Amino acid sequence: MSLSEKDVFARLKENAFHVLGLRPSCTRMEVEREGQKLLAMLELGLSEAAHYDTPVGRMPRTAELVRASMATLRDPTTRLQHALWAQLPPGTPAAQVPAKEEPASWPEAPVRLGWRRPG
Amino acid sequence: MIPFGAIIGVIVALRLLSRNQEGQSQQASPYATNSSYLFLTIVLVIPSTLFTLFGLLAGVWFFAPFTLLGIALCFPWTVARHVFIPLGWPRWASRFSYLAMMSWGSDARGGQALAAAWALLRARNPSAEARAYVEAKLEAADSPLRGAGIVAHGLMAASRGDLETARVLCRSVSLLDRRVAPRLARKLALEWCLADAAAHGRWREVLVISQKGSGSYSLAAFFRASARRLLAEPHAGRVVLISWWVLALRWWATWPLLKRAWRTPPRRASLLDLEAGETQAADRLARALELHAALARVPAGHEALALSAAAVAWDEALDSSKVHDLAAERAQGVGPLAGAEALDVLGDEVAEELAAWALAREVKLAQLEPGSDMVENVAYRVRNELLERIESAAQDMTYRLAERRPLPSEEEWRHFLALQHQCTLATSLGGLEVRRLAFDAVNVPLCNLGAWLFNERQEKAIANGMFRWLLEESRDVGTEEDCRRYQNNVGCGA
Amino acid sequence: MATPLYVGIDLGTTNSTAAAFDGEKLTLIRNAQGANLTPSVVRIDARGAVTVGDRARRLIDSDPQNTRSEFKRLMGTSQALEFAAAKLSKKPEELAAEVLKSLRKDVEQQLGVAPTCAVISVPALFELPQSAATSEAARLAGFSRVELIQEPVASALAAGWSANDEGSWLVYDLGGGTFDVSLLETRDGLLRVVGHDGDNFLGGRDFDQAIVDEVLAELLRTQGVDIRRADPRHATALRKLKRAVEEAKIELSRTDELPLLVPGAFETDNGPVDVDVVLTRARVEAACAPLVQRSINVCLRLLAAHGLEPSQLGKVVLVGGPTAMPFLRSQVQAALGAPFATDLDPMTLVAQGAALYAASSGLDGRPAASSAQPAPSGRKVWLQYPAMSSDLSPHVVGRLVEGDSGPKPALVRLVRADGGWSSPDSPLSAEGAFVLSVELVPRKPNTFRLEGMGADGKPVPLAPASFTIVQGLTLSDPPLSRSIGVALANNAVRVYFERGAPLPARRTFRQRTVEAVAKGSTGNVLRIPIVQGELEWAHLCRLVGALEIRGDQLKASLPADAEVELTLELDRGGRLSARALVPALGQVFEQVAQLQVPDATPESLQEGLTAARERLSMLRSSAFRRGAPGVVASLSQADQALAEIERDVEAARGGDADAGQKARRGLLDLDAQLEQAEAGLRWPELEETVREELAVASSWVAQFGSPAEQTLLDEAMKACERARAGRQQVELQRHLRSVRKLGNAAFYRHPSAWEWQFDSASSRVSEASDVSKAEELVQRGRRALEQQRREELRHVVEQLWRLLPEDAQERRLAHDSGVR
């Protein structure tokens, strides 16, 4: 029982490089510098730091995530793993295309059929 | 003068009488409809109403209120359904529903609870008192729990905002023996499920529900026709749609759906669209990642194809010497084997992600492209996950049975439904092999649960529902003994 | 600007130390006696007066009932310590709080300020409850904010602060009660803990114990007196002997031979016995050698785990009192080869590192009132910058505080106070914010002025007008020492925080319930056990807490397979909180039950020991049978561990609670070892079973099965083959069950099947839970057999089976988890 919905795309969504907005070729010092800057910006609530892009869309950035990402990239072994997943840059055109929608829902169905009070 | 006081007196007397009889006579058929009110209606209410009607026609205006009351007493369910339930008055809805005992067959108490729960669902700001009243009605419907009672519990869950439970319960009525699941209850459950699925845009579910459910054939057929058009299924014509709309007789209620389904269905997104923008990926790793990320945008119906494509791309990427070189380069300073190890870990991570996705999107494993290592790996993980869930739930049920820890009847039924749902899901994804293993895992605990409910707790309706499902399973994947046992058990009645 | 005060405390098993750092230099705090080390000993006399440190330690022999030491090892357990004269019982964290209070007072005396914040060091392998207890002790001692740092990280930070070379280091930290070894790496001014290992219960104390054992053995040899640690009569005398040995040990690093005389030490049935032996350096070394070797093995294991050879080490840092022993130094040197960092004081290094860490996490200990500046004039700016930075050009981010009046600057710039650097003028963003990178002078506090300019070019005063960044080695977040996760119903662990994850941390996962909880029932509980450890099976990890959802708290019943959103949160002090949201009910549950190291009663330990012994012997015979030399070798290690645990259990029976805890952990580790060994044996065993059962089932199904069953069996056999080829153990077991079932069904169609089953069940009557009832059933069965009543025979057999023992149940292992 190790699979759950939360895991789907977790490795793309929570990739340490994407979180810090860096590429796999960056140096260790860049990781620290960028992380420290993002933490400071998040603390001050600057909108610029509030989101980051991934190949599966835009995600909200939190201080915990930034700290965890820094720790990930400090350790060469985990960094290597994240570097492989980060091989695809977040800005690929495919990432911006929204998912093809299912046919629209009919939200007033329960009201119309008498299962809910209107309004 | 119309003796309405007397009529009500007779009702009460009959009610008391029927209660006494229940206590005394065990021989009465368990599926019999309580027809005391019908008798009363024919003998007393209809003649009196006719009498006042004639009086009214003769110009005696004094009779007008009595005529109205008489008509109301002749059609109690109509009054409950169209007056008290929309008003959100659980008490009155429940009382009139009691008079409509004919419509509820063998589950009159369940019917009362259902009407009360429905009225509560419609109430604007239900008071704590109203809630307590409905809960008391539900409790009364619990021993034994039958079809209408189950739907009532479902509606109550919906009024709490717990739609998931409501769905599970309302859909489960189709598992019961029809003798203990009155047609009206089945019809209402079906309508609620259809409305709920449509409201959440789950049109594929609408197709399934409308096929499985019973009690309201033409409305279900209309929903099915609409869903098929909305999903742009082949041969979903307008003639069928409009015919079922007319036959379903709910013209005003379903008009917006008709309008929507009538319009030309949108062209379906094909997977080719997705691939067009992605061919520029230079190396295999990026290509695999791109197809992997593209899964986030795969439209329903194309899952198996997209998953196979991603899996094959991963096979190629993980075998490619260029990717190995890249990993080795990135692994400098970690150790000589780190690059290859990292790729092994990557393979596991990918398989885990793909399996989690396949599970979330309910991809049928048999449709995946055979021959790919990654596909095999993913399929194994999905199968294993499905079976582990079932095994652990079955284990839990075994413990509960061993400790003889009873749950309220409705929850016993839900406990079974949770397991049954997991088995159904496992079968639909994993095919016959998984079905066999799942059945092996749940066979004993479910049979024991059913026997306990049937023999010791007199919950025959739901126990019978369980045996019916087990029989169906054992016919396909059980031994002869299993089949025979469940045939016997189902034959014991509900 | 007044100098900041960063306080670090090394709360040790035997001694505690405090150090302070002001941004430039480190100061060691002296206690009232003028010493750097304060013994971690607390005495409470009959009037309830508390004495801490040296004065308390002097009374530890003469008044052991009212004087307590070494309580650090009991942190996080429910074990209370009694003070007989004052009739008080204190929890270990309360005693630790007394020591912290005394250190806090020393800081106040020396520096004039009672600190409100501090960093306290804890052993690297401390578990969550132990960390939480340490935080609690600090709170009791009057610290309003406290952070914990692992001891090896602290010593490395202190060692790195004064050194310039980069590379890999090993910190060998042998304390009074614990042994930690850490592998560290410095690169680009950044310190990274590569990994650590250790023995939670190997310390200087064990060296003393080894010498005491040696002395006792001598007594047995020369005088024929058998003194056992398990005998509570000797507890005081043993303590006295230990003290004498401790002193002799220190003395022996200077001389070769020393007489040890404790007259009338032990009361025996034959009268008092004197201890009069001559200790030689060689004998002491021989007694301690296995312990030193054990510590070296841990070091080598750690190096091997990270693919390093001892020769690749740049330096070894020794920490802790026992590392002063020349014999130990020479052995470690010989084994590891790397030079020692000689200029560092092994006794105070940890406290110094903790103080440095307080600076890098900006934990200024000055109370709010004294650190508050007179309200500065100017437009208020909210600034974010690292108090300490290893980066030579960190970022400074600022934002105008909204709602503050006064002229608004259009441009800002930063100027270093020494005039050596200034930033370009930077315009403010639409949000009133700026992000600037500054340049630091290495290894110095750098003060910067913040200057604002209006649109007209005139200066605009800003508050604060200046701030300081210290450049030096830093460590940004304390890493978690062991992974934390939730035990699932199938005995797996869902890891929420990996080892090394930075604190604070917070994570949410969606789980599903496996059992229903009825509304209103008090006995019906859904447990979500939280475990710590690196092993994949929950029962092998340590249970550190449990979230419980009780029936009587529920608004509506919780069905099986309901979704639960579980969030675990860890703060920097290692305090764990958990909350479970049940979306279907819209209800949140937050009570974390039982955040404690479990008690180790001698009875439960004995039980565990017996079970482990049995398991070991079974494993050994099965390993020999299968000829698995690897497994046999690993079992000999387990043998040694078992012997050691046996000793500790015996000591626990003599009233040594600490040895009990040690034994408890030892048993858990042993379990893990045996589990691994079993896993190595399981696969061949399973393969053999599958082969056998397939043969049996196919013959029965061929004789008595229906065509449909034959098809099912063929399919199952194919699946078995596939699972076998892929070495998928669980899958194979699953198909095996299926095969077995089909085979069984066919088997029971044989006319004599129940007769055979009856024979086999009646031969096991002695194992039944109710033997007399079983015998009665056997009689009934015999009659039924004679009269050829098959149905009744079957009924009897089924009833008999119910009385016979069943196999162990997996979920009971997994801390009774109710989620998956």
UniProtKB/TrEMBL annotation, chain A:
Region spans: Disordered: 90-119
Superkingdom per UniProt: Bacteria
Name this polypeptide is given: Uncharacterized protein
Automatic annotation (TrEMBL), chain C:
One Pfam entry name: HSP70
Keywords: ATP-binding, Chaperone, Nucleotide-binding, Stress response
Top-level taxon of origin: Bacteria
GO molecular function: ATP binding; ATP-dependent protein folding chaperone
Residues spanning the membrane: none
Alphabetized SUPFAM superfamilies for the sequence: Actin-like ATPase domain, Heat shock protein 70kD (HSP70), peptide-binding domain
CDD domains documented for this protein: ASKHA_NBD_HSP70_DnaK_HscA_HscC (cd24029)
Similarity-based family: Belongs to the heat shock protein 70 family.
PANTHER family: HEAT SHOCK PROTEIN 70KDA
Protein name: Heat shock protein Hsp70
